[in-house]
Every structure is written in structure tokens, then in C-alpha cells.
Amino acid sequence: MAEEDREKMTFITLWGTFCYKVMPFGLKNVGATYQRAMLTLFHDMMHKEIEVYVDDMIAKSKADEDHTTTLQKLFDRLRKYQLKLNPSKYIFGATSGKLLGFIVSEERIKVDPDKVRAAMEMSSPKTEKEIRGFLGRLNYISRFISHLTPTCEPIFKLLRKNNSGKWNEDCEEAFNKIKQYLQSPPVLIPPAPRRPLILYLTVLESSMGGVLGQHDLSRKKEHVIYYLSKSLSIMNLDTQC
């Protein structure tokens, strides 16, 4: 924290009055500030040797020898700027693992079972806050869900203006349909370079969706890379017409 800003973060306890000397997570702009700092410190390594998203960091390489070199460079940079890592939270030489809520490996991307479980264990939402919470969970894993928008259209309607906001049978049907879909979510495949991509589009009355895919090496089987679904507002429709 800048010295002149520390008093703004003062808090009172039974043992006295304290203030933060460093910026704590929880402030509105902390995430953006931290990410900007990481981009500044590791700008020459980003998207080449490492990836950083706030406090999640991954060092990547195709060969063991390159990986050792990358780690040495990364640790030298961390020492230079006096940054510290939590030993219980890093793994060396991993070929797969959890990253930002997904299970990532060289050949596939799967949704984290914990993310699916959180949605599956939800009871039917009744309040606006619960509805937004459910849709927020779905939005995070939306790349795995085919036809998300048309399927959840009755639920999306509850959040629009001039709507009663009451949970009805259509909402319950959509809710159960999504939960059934999530019992066996698809596995996504990262795109292979220098291989043609396939794009399928579906345009409905109030929404559109797409699937980005790619053939395997045999060119006989298609793999899904990404699902995309979006509602079309009246303004969108007028523009397109």
C-alpha cells in the first residue's frame, strides 16, 4: 500500500487499531493491480515460457531440458523482485493438473469436477441472487456446454426488465436439463497448429450458438475445441436485419 493510503485501510480490533502495509485481496482494484504488476515483471516471459493470471502461475515447456532452463529463469526473476512462493501449492514436472478451474493436459481440457459438483448440488434457485449465482457458475464452464443459451432461456428471462421473476415449470425443466447434461460434460481438445478448423453455427429466433472443432490426424473424427452460445437482443436483431 502507498504510505498515504494506509490510513484508509485502518480497522479496529480488541487489541488496537491496525492498517495494512501491503495491499490485501478483497479491495475492488486489487486483482487488476496485481495482474498489471505481474505483466510488468514478467513481460518478456509471458505467453512464451510462463502464463500468469493474478496469483496463479505456470511454467511451460515441451522438453525436460527446456523446462529446467525456464524454471531457473523464473526463480531468478522471483528472487530479483523478492517475491515468494508457497511450497505447498506448487508442483514440478506435471504433465496435467488443475488450472483456473479446469483440468489441463497436453491433449485435452476437462472441467474441474468441483465446479460441476457445485452446480449439481444446487437446489432450484428462488431469489434473484440465487439465480445469478447459478448462471454465474454455468458461465464459468460455458465453453463445455452445447446450446447453453436456448436451454436456459426461461431462466435468463427472469433477470430481464418487466418480468415477474417467478420460478416456473419451464425454469425447472431447464434447470434439470442442464444438471443432467453436466453429469457427463464433454472433453475439449486444444487446437493443433497448421490443421484446418471447423466451425458450425446455429441461429435461432432469439439466440445463436457455435461449435469450433478440428479433425484428428486420421481426418475421420472431429473433436470439439469450444462451445459458444449467445442471446440476441432486439437491438441485435434490428441491426442484423
TrEMBL record:
Query: Which ranges carry the Reverse transcriptase domain?
Result: 15-104
According to the UniProt entry, the coiled-coil residues are none
Q: Which InterPro entries match?
A: DNA/RNA_pol_sf, Rev_trsase/Diguanyl_cyclase, RT_dom, RT_RNaseH_2, Viral_Replic_Matur_Polypro
Gene3D superfamilies reported in the protein's UniProt record: 3.30.70.270
- Give residue ranges for domain Reverse transcriptase/retrotransposon-derived protein RNase H-like: 167-233
Record protein name field: Retrovirus-related Pol polyprotein from transposon 17.6
